[in-house]
Write a structure and sequence with these properties.
Layout lengths: L8 H12 L2 H9 L2 H12 L2 H17 L10 H19 L6 E2 L7 E2 L15 H4 L8 H7 L4 H12 L4 H7 L4 H18 L17 H15 L3 H7 E10 L5 E3 L1 H10 L10 E8 L2 E8 L8 E11 L2 E9 L13
Helix pairs in contact: 1-2, 3-4, 3-5, 4-5, 8-10, 9-10, 11-12, 12-13
C-alpha cells in the first residue's frame, strides 16, 4: 500500500469535489475506501460497532477538512491519517477500551468490548484488502489491544499495512525516531501476547477456509443438533483455550472439563437442547452461529456465535459471543 501504486484519478476527483462543495460527488469518491478504513478502525478498537462509527466520523472529518487536501499525498493516506486520529480521540475519551484483569485465576486479562468482524464486510478487491488471515484473526486483534493507543497505531501502520517509517510518523505527527521506538516496544508486547505464533503478517497466506476447517465446523454444529456430548468433546483439543464473552477471561481447559462446564451451566439440558447451526466466517476464521429453540417458542433464535481456531482437525481455540437478542453480522435473528 504505497502512494506510488495509487492512481491519480481519485485525488483529482476529490479536489474537484472539494472545490465545488459537491457533497454527493465527495461521498462517491470516498465511499470506495469505506471497507478498508472500517477494517483499520476495527484493528484499532476491536469492536465492529465502534469501527462503523469511527469510519463514519472519518468521512465527516474529511468533509470538514476537505480544503486542506492538496494532493501532495495519496487520498488513501490522507483518509487513513484521519481515521487513525479519530480512533485515538475515541480512545482518549473512553476509559473502558483497554484490557482489564480477568476475574478467573490464571485467565490473564480480558477484552470486554471485543466483537467479531463479518467477512462479508471485508474489502472485496484482494489487491487492496490487506486482510490476510493473520492480520484479522481474533488473537491478533486481542493482542493489539494490549498496546498503548499510539503504539497500536504505529504497529498497525508499519507491520500490518507495511507503511514506511516516514509515512507512519507523518500520519501520527511523530518524529521517525519516536515512531521507530514505539514500534520496537510494540513488537516486544506482541511477541509476549502471541507466543508461538507467526509474527510476519505480510507474508503470503490464504484467505480461504480449508476443507478440514469446514468439516470440523459441520461436525461441531451436528454435535449440538444431536446433543452428542461425546462427539463434541472429541472435536476439542485437550488444551482448549476458551472464552465466552462477555463472561470473564480466557481459560485453558481440557475438552471434558469444557463440555462439563457447559452442561453445568444449563446447556444441553431439557429446554436448552434443541439446536440448529449456521456455518459462517468472521475475522477470516470458521464460525458457527448457534440457534436455540425453547419449549414455548415456535422459532429457533440466535443464541451465540462460536469462532473457532482449528489445528490438525481439532478445535484449539473457541471464542464464544453471546448473540441473544442481537441482530449480529447480518445473520437472521430466527430460523
Amino acid at each position: 500500500m504505497t502512494d506510488a501504486k495509487l492512481p491519480g484519478d481519485d485525488e483529482a476527483a476529490f479536489i474537484a469535489a472539494a472545490r465545488s462543495n459537491d457533497a454527493a460527488h465527495f461521498a462517491l469518491v470516498t465511499e470506495r475506501y469505506r471497507r478498508e478504513l472500517q477494517v483499520h478502525c476495527y484493528r484499532m478498537l476491536a469492536n465492529y460497532e465502534d469501527a462503523q462509527d469511527m469510519t463514519q466520523e472519518t468521512f465527516l472529518r474529511a468533509w470538514h477538512k476537505r480544503e486542506s487536501f492538496k494532493g501532495h499525498a495519496a487520498l488513501r493516506t490522507w483518509l487513513y491519517r484521519i481515521a487513525t486520529n479519530a480512533c485515538l480521540d475515541f480512545l482518549d475519551r473512553r476509559d473502558d477500551r483497554t484490557p482489564v484483569p480477568a476475574e478467573l485465576p490464571g485467565a490473564g486479562s480480558q477484552v470486554h468490548y471485543l466483537q467479531p468482524y463479518p467477512d462479508r464486510m471485508l474489502p472485496e478487491d484482494p489487491q487492496e484488502s490487506v486482510v490476510a488471515r493473520e492480520t484479522i484473526e481474533l488473537a491478533l486483534i486481542v493482542a493489539v489491544q494490549h498496546l498503548p493507543p499510539r503504539q497500536r497505531a504505529v504497529f498497525i501502520m508499519r507491520d500490518v499495512l507495511g507503511w514506511p517509517a516516514s509515512k507512519a510518523a507523518d500520519a501520527l505527527e511523530l518524529t521517525v525516531a519516536s515512531a521507530t521506538s514505539a514500534l520496537q516496544r510494540a513488537r516486544v508486547t506482541m511477541r509476549e501476547q502471541l507466543p508461538g505464533r507467526r509474527l510476519d503478517w505480510r507474508s503470503p497466506t490464504t484467505h480461504e477456509l480449508s476443507d478440514d476447517e469446514r468439516g470440523v465446523v459441520k461436525s461441531y454444529m451436528n454435535a449440538h443438533e444431536r446433543n452428542d456430548l461425546d462427539g463434541l468433546t472429541a472435536l476439542l483439543r485437550d488444551d482448549l483455550r476458551f472464552a465466552m464473552l462477555p463472561d470473564p477471561g480466557t481459560v485453558t481447559v481440557t475438552a471434558k472439563d469444557a463440555v462439563d462446564g457447559w452442561v453445568s451451566g444449563g446447556l444441553f439440558r431439557r429446554g436448552h437442547d434443541d439446536w440448529r447451526g449456521v456455518a459462517t466466517t468472521v475475522n477470516r476464521m470458521p464460525a458457527a452461529a448457534l440457534y436455540l429453540r425453547t419449549p414455548d417458542d415456535p422459532e429457533y433464535r440466535l443464541f451465540a456465535i462460536a469462532v473457532l481456531r482449528i489445528v490438525d482437525g481439532e478445535i484449539a481455540e473457541l471464542t464464544g459471543f453471546d448473540a441473544a437478542g442481537k441482530p449480529w453480522l447480518g445473520l437472521p435473528p430466527t430460523l
